[in-house]
Amino acid sequence: MRRILVQFAHPVLERSRVNRRLLAAIRDIEGVTVNDLYEAYPALAIDVEREQALLVAHDVIVFQHPFYWYSTPAILKEWQDLVLEHGWAYGAGGTQLRSKLTLNAITTGGPAHAYRREGGNRFTVRELLAPWEQTAFLCGMRFLAPHVVHAALRIVGDDDLAPRRDSYRRLLEALRDDRIDLERAEAAQNLADELDHVLAPREVA
Amino acid sequence: MTGGVLAMVLVYLAAAVVFVPIAKRLGLGAVLGYLVAGVIIGPFVLGLVGDEGHSVTHFAEFGVPVMLFLVGLELRPGLLWQLRKPIFGLGGAQVVATAAAVAGVAVAAGLHYKIAIAVGLIFASSSTAIVLSTLAERNLLKTQGGQASFSVLLFQDIAVVPIFAVFPLLATFAVIAPSAGDAGARPAWQSALLVLAAVAGVVAIGRFVVRPVFQFLATVKVRESFTAAALLIVVGIAYLMYLVDLSAALGTFLAGVVLADSEYRHELETDLEPFRGLLLGLFFISIGAQIDFGLIGREPLMIGGIVIATMAGKLIVLYALGRLFRLDRSSRWLFAFALAQIGEFAFVLLTQGQKDHIFTAAVAAPLVAAVALSMALTPLMFIVLERFVLPAVTDRDAERPEDEIVSEDTPVVIAGYGRFGQMVGRILRANQIGVTILDLDPEMVEVVRRLGVKVYYGDASRMDLLHAAGCARAKLFVCAVDDKEEATKIVEQVRHHFPNLTIVSRCRDRQHYWELRKLGCIAVFRETFGSAYEAGIASLIQLGYRSYTAHRLARRWRDHEERTLEDLGKHWGTESYFAQAKQRMEEAERLMRDVDPTVYLERDAAWDNESLRADTQVDAAAPPVAERP
Known about the structure:
The structure holds 2 protein chains of 2 kinds.
Chain A: E1 4-8, H1 18-26, E2 32-36, H2 37-40, H3 48-56, E3 60-66, H4 74-83, E4 101-107, H5 125-128, H6 130-138, E5 142-143, E6 147-149, H7 158-176, H8 182-187, H9 191-198
Parallel strand pairs in A: 1-2, 1-3, 3-4, 4-5, 4-6
Helix pairs in contact in A: 1-7, 7-9
Chain B: H1 2-25, H2 30-41, H3 53-60, H4 63-74, H5 77-82, H6 84-108, H7 113-124, H8 128-137, H9 144-166, H10 188-220, H11 223-243, H12 248-259, H13 265-290, H14 293-298, H15 300-324, H16 329-338, H17 345-355, H18 361-394, E1 412-415, H19 419-430, E2 435-439, H20 442-450, E3 455-457, H21 463-468, E4 476-479, H22 484-497, E5 502-507, H23 510-519, E6 523-526, H24 529-542, H25 547-571, H26 577-594, H27 610-618
Parallel strand pairs in B: 1-2, 1-4, 2-3, 4-5, 5-6
Helix pairs in contact in B: 1-2, 2-13, 2-18, 3-13, 4-12, 4-13, 6-7, 6-9, 6-15, 7-17, 8-9, 9-16, 10-11, 10-12, 11-12, 11-13, 15-16, 15-18, 16-18, 17-18, 22-23, 23-25, 24-25
């Protein structure tokens, strides 16, 4: 069983529609730890030791956040800058994160078709996540495709979000129980859409 | 009688008031000013003072122990231990070499060898009073040369004890009646025991008696009793030393060292400083008044010869020793020039020599004149040193002076070490920033001192205490005193005397805030503001607000509050009392208005995507220009 850490970052969760519900959908899963970064560090003073201990204690690190300006809310950048220390996470002797799995669970305002060469955003989400992918690579982690909820602004009620809540929950459970084909998951574009494809066949033999 | 005393005091004080400023203005230093004042009021110019000069000298000599007590206060035992090599090595070499050189010349000049040895020992000493006050006046005490001079002077003070013991052995004519009560009358082992006992006594007094007494006096809070107690320590120790034939200066120095670690150090310094200045001034005036110009007039060549030969000889010996002990070039010159004169102990020893039947009054008289002249020449020596010698050697002497006494000055001085000052002090100390703390509460001082923090008892609005705490060299002054008037007074003083010192201050309320800002404090903090602010945030969180949101909202309110405070402050103090009262009413009203959350909550559009949302709902097909979640 893999232990999963959800690094959650949303500056105004009380106004959130999608992220709040997604979080509620996975909070109670056994083996999942949710670390609410803005709640823990309201003055952005990250407790590096605590964060590193959390990373060490888990096998899968999920960064759940809105895709602000094709990136993350500010606290996640601060978190990266402080926690992923040289000699700890990367570089000589920096082996603490080696072979852990990581992915981003994000929500975007724009619809899926906007995230392509001809679309308004001109790049795919995976392309825009290149810094995260490279960070994972540098730390020796396996970077899986993101779980993306597109057009979050158009989601109004629980019904709109039901399929995504479901895919997010199933994804984390599958990761926990090692029922994911990691190579396919690394190659995918959006695990929310391609979940069935990456789930390892339950009975191969 | 009373009239006579008053007249005398009048003459001395007037002389000091007139001549010292003139001498200082002319760049000659206060010591020369006092000496000239003495000469002018002395029997050979105005004749205002006469025979009582000697008794005044004896009284004024007390300035030397006071001065050494203060010097001792600056030296912690650890530092003294560091100086053991210069004191005994350099000091010992100086006394032996100088005495031998002088004695050699004296024998060559036809004096009996015993007289020659006695004169050599007498002339080996330098003037602690003149040298230390001159060095202090020029801020040279902490330089390498200054430290070397100080060490040698200290050894000379110690050496007086054995010199007294040796003198009876040098008697050159028959002793008619055994001199009773002198040091020589006691067997050596007894003297040694007495000396040890006295030293132990001084240390014990400093360690175990002074602190509780001061603690008690501090609770009584009567200023004068503090000053009296400080004087009592010095007088008491001087008397104890007198009883065992030890140098009073040495004893008080020791007591000073013992008390250097005490939290009352600055207070003692502040209390005794005026006495030191006055007594030493008196001492120098009386030396000036005693110079026997009659004798000098009759024997100018002999006395001039003695002065010049002695000073030149001492200078050469000192310079050579400076080289031998590896002082750097400019320090060697300072050291040699500073100590070239003959010290005030010579007066005492010349009298003692006659009592011990070493020489007669006829031999002593020209020597006394020579000693006084050499002391009077010292300020001139310093002028020659600074104008001609040092400029010639310093440009080639770029090397840094080594082994300086570590200055105790800290970059930060904190006045008031209660609940407020403690926080500031702890944050600074946690970041390895040295702080000097002044506090007026004896119990607080005691408690904090026990925790190993450098804290001093004293009233921080006193100019001299601020000086003693090192405000002249500090970078930052933190006024953390709780009393409103007291804080204003302290800030005023600091602002006035140390205009370049940055001040951070605690304040009571808005009025006080504006007052202190107007005085030039760079940052002022209302004493309960920070904790009330935190409590506000905690309350929001307890009511279910997200922590980050609570912090942002409180911060926003705080920025608004601080802007309002500054704006209101611009009007403060410009109108009469009634206008101010009216303003305060308005202010209160305005404060109430500020509670309206619309002032800041409605403006919080951060991460708000309602408008974006409306956009996407209207035109779902076309991708928005800037796609933001």
